[in-house]
Amino acid sequence: MDKALYVAMTGARASLQAQGTVSHNLANADTAGFKAALANTESFRIPGAGHASRIDAMHVDQGYNSRVGSQRVTGNPLDVSLHQNRWLAVQAGDGGEAYTRAGNLSVTPNGQLVTAGGRPLLDENGNPMAIPPHQALDIGQDGTVSIVPLGEGPQTLGVIGRLRVVEAAPERLARGLDGLMRNTDPAQPLAQGGDDALTAGVLEGSNVDAAGALVQMIQLQRQFEMQVKVIQRGDDNAQAANSLLRLGG
C-alpha cells in the first residue's frame, strides 16, 4: 500500500486531536479562572533508508494561554482574582499539591475552605485551610485570611492563616488529567506569591475566546475532510495500480 496513506493518516489524526483540545476549551468558556489549552503540530521525519520524503504530522501540547481572563466584581469575600502568574495551591485527589486559578471559593459545613470543584485549599504550611465559625471573613492581597468570630464585635478581626499562593511562569506548570496544574520540576518548589498576589471580591473568568474557538473548529473540520480525501484518493490509486499489475501479469 502507498506510504502516502500513512502520512495523510497522521495529519488527520493530528487534526482530530486538535479538535479535542478546542472542544475542551469551548466546554470551559464559562469556567472561572480557566486557561485555554494550546495545541499545534510539528513535522516528524520517518527514519529509515531511502530519500527523506516521508514526513508525519505530530500533535503537540504547547501548554496554556497565560493571558488573564475577564474580571467581574462580585463583592463576595470568598471570590478572589489571582494576579498574573499567581496560583492557588490545593490538595489534589492523590494528596499532592496542585494549582488552580479558579477563585470562586466556599466554606463547607465542617469549616473547610474549598474551590468550586471541592478541592481543599492549602495554607502556607501546606495544610488544608480550616475556617472557624465566624460572622465575617476577609482575604487580604497577600492571601492572609482573617475572620470576626461569632459573638464578637466587628473590631475584633483576627488572622487565622495565610493561603498558599504561588508564583509560577507558564513553563513551570503543566495541566494534569484532572484539570489542575502541577509543578514540572518537583525538585524546585514554587515560591510564595508575595504581598500583592490577589484581589478579593473579584472573580476572574475564563480566557477562552469562544468565537475564535468556533472558527478554529470549522477550520480543523475542513482540514480533516481534506486529509480524508487524500487518503481516499491514495487508496483508489493503490487499487488501480494493483489492478494494472494483475492484468499485466
Care to describe what's here?
By secondary structure, this protein is α+β, with helices and mostly antiparallel strands. The chain is built from 2 helices and 17 strands. It has helices spanning 4-27, 210-248, and strands at 37-45, 55-64, 71-73, 80-82, 86-91, 97-100, 106-107, 113-114, 134-139, 144-149, 158-162, 165-167, 173-175, 181-183, 191-192, 198-200, 202-204. Strands 6-5-12-15 form a 4-stranded antiparallel β-sheet, with no helix packed on it. The protein is elongated and about 100 Å long. The relative contact order is 0.20. The model has no long low-confidence stretch (mean pLDDT 88).
Helices and strands, with pairings:
Blueprint: H1 4-27, E1 37-45, E2 55-64, E3 71-73, E4 80-82, E5 86-91, E6 97-100, E7 106-107, E8 113-114, E9 134-139, E10 144-149, E11 158-162, E12 165-167, E13 173-175, E14 181-183, E15 191-192, E16 198-200, E17 202-204, H2 210-248
Antiparallel strand pairs: 1-2, 3-17, 4-16, 5-6, 5-12, 7-8, 9-10, 10-11, 12-15, 13-14
Q: What features would you highlight for this structure?
A:
249 residues, alpha+beta, 4-stranded antiparallel sheet, 3-stranded antiparallel sheet, 2 helices, 25% helix, elongated
Describe what is shown at a glance:
Helix content is 25%, strand content 29%. With 249 residues, it is α+β, with helices and mostly antiparallel strands.
Order of strands in the sheet with most strands: 6-5-12-15
C-alpha termini separation: 18 Å
Spatial extent as radius of gyration: 25 Å
Major sheet description: 4 strands, antiparallel
Number of helices: 2
Assess the beta-strand content as a share of residues.
Answer: 25-35%
| Morphology | elongated
Low-confidence stretches: none
Instruction: Tell me the series of helices and strands, N- to C-terminal.
Output: HEEEEEEEEEEEEEEEEEH
Overall mean pLDDT stands at 88
Which class best fits the helix and strand makeup? alpha+beta
Helical fraction = 25-40%
How many β-strand runs?
17
